[in-house]
Amino acid sequence: MEDRQTGAPEKVGRFSITVDQVQDYEFRVKFDKEHVQDLMTDEPPPLGHEKGPNASRLLAAAVGNCLSASLVFCARKVRLDLRGLHTEVAFQYVRNEKGRLRVGKIEVVISPQFDEGQPEKIQRCVELFEDYCTVSQSVRAGIPMSVSVKR
Fold this sequence. Notes:
A three-stranded antiparallel sheet has the order 1-2-3, with no helix packed on it. Strands 4-5 form a two-stranded antiparallel ribbon. The chain is an alpha+beta fold. The chain has helices at about 55-75, 120-130, 135-140, and strands at about 20-25, 25-30, 40, 80-95, 100-115.
């Protein structure tokens, strides 16, 4: 939805997390929900000690999780019998013109286990579910971001 006066996307929610350095490249991520455990992140060697996933793996997990959840949501909405699903996310790095690592490509393969008795509903979900994934659609479109360093 858009703001009627400005035409900009409507703001409907916000949350904040914190990221604190433990040591070297190891960080503790605290979420905005008290019942959610902290998450430790770290870079792989030679920089870090791989005590947790790095940011690229978290992004891959976010994309895979969001797409999987969107397919489950669609299946439930149309009353499809989904017995489970398995999602694989392949992440490819590339170097930009300055030689810096960037995300070059994300490939997602979702393998749902549907009862085959309702092919029309299955096809409808396969056509629609991606559009409801907040993360993948935002990544695909590019996300406006501001970064500041307070001293």
